[in-house]
Write a structure and sequence with these properties.
This protein has about 240 residues and is mainly alpha-helical. It has twelve helices and two strands. A hairpin with a 4-residue loop joins β1 and β2. About 60% of the residues lie in helices and about 0% in strands. The chain folds into three domains: about 100 residues, no CATH class; about 45 residues, no CATH class; about 50 residues. A two-stranded antiparallel ribbon has the order 1-2. This is RNA transcription, translation and transport factor protein. Pfam families: RLL. InterPro entries: RTRAF.
């Protein structure tokens, strides 16, 4: 499951690593922090290095929080995969010039038709790496968990398309200039007996209408997002398959 990332990081036993073995797992965390991540100063790694301590799980939990790992200590496979991903990113950052021109052998010989293939068709939804990646994104974007990882992936795609594309960010960043409103054209419907109070009531009423419109827009967006997820005729969630 972790062989490729472990090999990329020059781990001594990438093929035989077993994260369920407690001693091996603890030694692996220490190696990862000492050799690759290096989030703590050397003098601050004592608690993490003391793998025989009864308080070591608390030290690990603090370490995961300090590096912003989105998983819980009980989710061991997901945690290992996330930490490996962090280590690979840091390793690349330290050696960017070495890797920037590298091209995988498989990529050189790949068939051109594979480049145009529908990515979701070729996904192995039962792959632990795939599940860990989707779960990490869902936690990062605060998307509700779902038993079907494809459903979560589609929800992530919709959120990214609607909120995080360059056009969406630019549009959200634009300042909205209000248009002048002629209050005398808007009937209040009652009279307080004070012209100033009447005008203030008219303004409050217009602001309330604007808030209702914004709320309705958000409701419509939520409905569209849900329909986009559950109304896809190519997805049969009962069978756990994609495609006809």
């Amino acid at each position: 499951m972790f062989r490729r990332k472990l090999s990329a990081l020059d781990y001594h036993n990438p093929a035989g690593f077993n994260c369920r073995d407690e001693t091996e797992f603890r030694n692996f965390i220490v190696w990862l922090e000492d050799q690759k991540i290096r989030h703590y100063k050397i003098e601050d790694r004592g608690n993490l290095r003391n793998i025989h301590s009864e308080d070591w799980p608390k030290s690990l939990e603090k370490y995961m929080k300090d590096v912003n790992c989105p998983f819980k200590i009980q989710e061991r496979q997901e945690t290992v995969d996330w930490l490996l991903g962090l280590a690979v990113r840091l390793e690349y950052g330290d050696n960017a010039d070495k890797y920037k021109d590298s091209t995988p052998d498989g990529a050189k010989n790949a068939d051109n038709t594979a480049k145009n293939a529908e990515p979701l068709i070729n996904l192995d939804v039962n792959n632990p790496d795939f599940k860990a990646g989707v779960m990490a994104l869902a936690n990062l974007l605060q998307i509700q968990r779902h038993d079907d990882y494809l459903v979560m992936l589609k929800a992530i795609r919709i959120l990214v398309q609607e909120r995080l594309t360059q056009d969406a960010i630019a549009k959200a960043s634009q300042s909205k200039e209000g248009l002048p409103v002629a209050l005398e054209k808007h009937i209040l419907g009652f009279d307080t007996g004070d012209a100033v109070v009447n005008e203030a009531a008219q303004i409050l009423r217009l602001l309330h209408i604007e808030e209702l419109r914004e709320l309705q827009t958000k409701i419509n967006e939520a409905i569209v997002a849900v329909q986009a997820i559950i109304a896809d005729p190519k997805t049969d969630h009962r069978l756990g398959k994609v495609g006809r």
